[in-house]
Automatic annotation (TrEMBL):
Catalytic activity: tRNA(Trp) + L-tryptophan + ATP = L-tryptophyl-tRNA(Trp) + AMP + diphosphate + H(+)
Family, similarity comment: Belongs to the class-I aminoacyl-tRNA synthetase family.
Protein name as it appears in the record: Tryptophan--tRNA ligase
GO cellular component: cytosol
Gene name of this polypeptide: trpS
One GO molecular-function entry: tryptophan-tRNA ligase activity
A biological process term (GO) from this entry: tryptophanyl-tRNA aminoacylation
EC number in record: 6.1.1.2
Amino acid sequence: MTDKILTGDRPTGQLHLGHYVGSLRARVELQNQHPQTILIADMQGLTDNGHNPAKVAENILNVLADYLAVGIDPQRTTLCLQSGLPALAELTQFYANLVTVSRLERNPTVKAEIASKEFGASIPAGFLTYPISQAADITAFRATLVPVGDDQLPMIEQTNEVVRKVNNVAGQELLVECRALIGKASRLPGVDGKAKMSKSLGNALVLGASEKDISKAVKKMYTDPGHLRIEDPGKVEGNVVFTYLDAFHPDEALVAGLKEHYQRGGLGDGQVKKVLEECLQELLAPIRERRERFIADKGELMRILQAGTQAAREETGVVLQDLKKAFGLPIL
Ligand code: TRP
């Protein structure tokens, strides 16, 4: 049986290299093998930006342009907008009755985000419950495979709990369980060496970065603080330049050679950074050019989003109707 793929991102900023490594790259390949839908999760973006909807609204087309720029093809992948799909909100409301508040509070991703966002006692209800809405996203498309970064694993687990509960109540296999597809280097550190690349931490390199931005980011990139002289042996573990070479350089043998030389001593940080910079410039130049062309034609972007959302509205509406029928509710 072929997989059905659903994935998505919150449009709260431009997408960056962390997204690329975590799942964008995989999605470009997967669209040739399976039916795939990508959801621009604006409703989820609002769960911690409720008082600043402009931040979400203005990034919808940015994210769409990022998708198209990396090679997502709207002929192969359905690109749709979460707020344009009322069935998702309705399914969320049904599922919310089968999920406890304490289970949500225990979700490790939500827990970590609550701590890092410093909500204190003012956690928005929509934020605490967003795993339920993500379960609605996934199940409404009958997705079986969800390509995401590894921070999303708890969401998949909670989605499958919802699936089992709903099926139990419905007395039939109404919804399907899904599994995560985790990228090769699913968590890219920021250019400063911090555990995760993230726009809010200010350590991200966006896909539309200029040549100069790329050059600057590589120059200030964290290496081995103990590697003071070129002739000293250096460490590759925790050395962001090597982590990035592993994630992006197409020539694995060359990277292995550089590592060996660096560890032995005699290879300067500057030389390794030069190899990385060339590789990133080469990767991002065509993406930047395509991105600029798409962003310059907002009308075309809107047409793509409109067509994908229309198709998705029909698809998700069917699952909602099936659930209502299975629950014995009249279809009016
Ligand atoms: N939670 C995801 C993120 O933080 C975005 C998302 C929303 C998503 N709905 C989804 C991912 C459904 C996969 C499947 O980026």
